[in-house]
Amino acid sequence: MEILYNIITATVISGSLSIILVVAEYFFANYGDCKITVNDKKELVVKGGGNLLNALAENKIFIPSACGGRGSCGFCKVKALDGAGPVLPTEKPYLSAKELNNNVRLSCQIKVRQDIKIEIPEELFNIKKFKAKVIEVIDYTYDIKGITFQLLDPDTVDFKAGQYMQLETPKYEKSKQVISRAYSISSIPDNKNALQFIIRRVPDGLCTTWVHDYLKMGDIVNLVGPFGDFYIRDTDTDIIYVAGGSGKAPIKSMVEHAAKYQNPRKMTYFFGARAMKDLYLTEEFQEYEKTMPDFTYVPVLSSPDPEDDWKGKTGFIPPYFKDYIRDPLKTEAYLCGSPGMIAAVEKELTKLGVPNDKIYFDSF
Ligand SMILES: Cc1cc2nc3c(=O)[nH]c(=O)nc-3n(C[C@H](O)[C@H](O)[C@H](O)COP(=O)(O)OP(=O)(O)OC[C@H]3O[C@@H](n4cnc5c(N)ncnc54)[C@H](O)[C@@H]3O)c2cc1C
Ligand code: FES
User: Fold this and answer.
1) Domain 31-124 CATH superfamily
2) Which of 68, 117, 169, 309 is most open to solvent, judged by the fewest CB atoms within 10 Å of its CB?
3) Which backbone phi and psi does 140 adopt, to 5 degrees?
4) Which pLDDT score is estimated for 134?
């Protein structure tokens, strides 16, 4: 009883102290102007107190961020050379020992309290923020929509099939803040003025609830990007794609682009879904089997409903790999889906002999 009392007392005291510190910082801390030096060539003067990710974005330097700064994606890495303070416990799960040694940090977790010196990849200077208007909304399934945005300002973007943008949704009744989330572009790079995204509803998800229940034709949003290194490598190996649900978005862009340019590589796309109600764009992908030099579409249902009368492949996808992989050493794999799915598929592909450095993925 006494131990329990001591634990509760300690928890209440430390909780109260944390709240006092946060409140004191909010009302009384004044860090004045701070200088952020980027790659030894750009100097930004910002008002201290905010986080580094936002301070950079306000100065049109956009660091990748899939979670909008919540510290839950690990995408917003920068090399902090000076002035970033100690590494926080919230950063450690996302940083390898090598990254910690090299002063790599999560920019959304660094508070700008003094002058800071950082290094970022040069290509991030090319990332832009676009104003865009909703011009098409398609219901692909009961929980997946295809949304097309026309770019207004700037009005064109260059990207590679498979890359993603960050969608900023406005404040609305379920979110008092602007929300930013990553979405893969599902249209092809040739169309530089209009971008399509395929967005699956996440129950109670802040961004997807807005997209599914509030977004309407003509709405204006901000898109930031393009980001990511999930794109087809320029080689002549065979290709295996594995992606279900909204993971089809980047693969759609890759396959449509390959179809347009009649890419001769042997490509096989395994689309995993639960039941027939989760299948979409099936006819379009079956059409590519006829029009592309060497493309095969393999939908696999894990638990079809009785009324589906499904005669196709069922169960898990990996047991089917051996029927389609000709030479594992000459195969690249592009995977998109949940971290669990990616880990399981990667393990099976490696067992079959596909080299680990030829397996590329985006996990979400
Ligand atoms: C590189 C990249 C590309 C992406 N591309 C796409 C895409 O093309 N299409 C697409 O639909 N999504 C994509 N995502 C996922 C997307 O960024 C959001 O994470 C997702 O839409 C949920 O956002 P939300 O604001 O609605 O949910 P949140 O408000 O962020 O989350 C609400 C709750 O749901 C949980 N949650 C979050 N995501 C999922 C999930 N996927 N399944 C189950 N529970 C979840 C959270 O833990 C939280 O508890 C991508 C993510 C990354 C990193
Ligand atoms: S933006 Fe997601 S962890 Fe920093």
Assistant:
1) Beta-grasp domain (3.10.20.30)
2) 309
3) -75, -45
4) 98
For 93, phi then psi, to 5°, come to -60, -20
Assigned token pair, 65: 């961020």
Cβ of residue 200 lying under 6 Å from some atom of ligand 1: yes
Identify the DSSP state of 210.
Answer: I
Question: Residues 19, 116, 22, CA angle at the centre, nearest 5°?
Answer: 5
Write the CB contacts of 115 (distance below 8 Å, at least 6 apart in sequence): 34, 35, 36, 37, 82, 83
CATH number 3.40.50.80 given to 238-363: yes
For ligand 1, say whether the CB of 207 is within 6 Å of any of its atoms: yes
Q: Is 210 in the pocket of ligand 1 (CB under 6 A)?
A: no
Q: Is the CB of 165 under 6 A from ligand 1?
A: no
Which pLDDT does position 68 carry in this prediction?
86
Tell me which ligand sits closest to the C-alpha of residue 166. 1
Q: Which atom of ligand 2 is nearest to the CA of 107?
A: 4
Give yes or no for a contact between 241 and 251, defined as CB atoms under 8 angstroms apart.
yes
Torsion of CA 243, 345, 106, 186, to 10 degrees: -10
How far is the C-alpha of 103 from the C-alpha of 118, rounded, in Å?
A: 10
- Could you give the residue ranges of the DSSP H alpha helices within 201-269? 206-209, 248-260
Indicate if ligand 1 lies below 6 Å from the C-beta of 206: yes
Can you give the pLDDT at residue 240?
98
- pLDDT score for 31: 78
Testing ligand 2's pocket by substitution, the residue of 51, 52, 72 carrying the most ligand atoms inside 8 A of its CB is: 72
Cα(67) to ligand 2 centroid in Å equals 5
Q: Quick one: tokens of 212?
A: 């599914």
Q: Where are the domains of the chain?
A: 1-26, 31-124, 127-227, 238-363
**106 Cβ inside 6 Å of ligand 2:** yes
Q: What is the pLDDT of residues 97-149, one digit of tens each?
A: 999 999 999 999 999 999 999 999 999 999 999 999 999 999 999 999 999 99
Residue spans of the chain under pLDDT 50 = none
Q: What is the CATH number of domain 127-227?
A: 2.40.30.10
Choice from 149, 166, 181 to test ligand 1 binding pocket (greatest atom count within 8 A of CB): 181
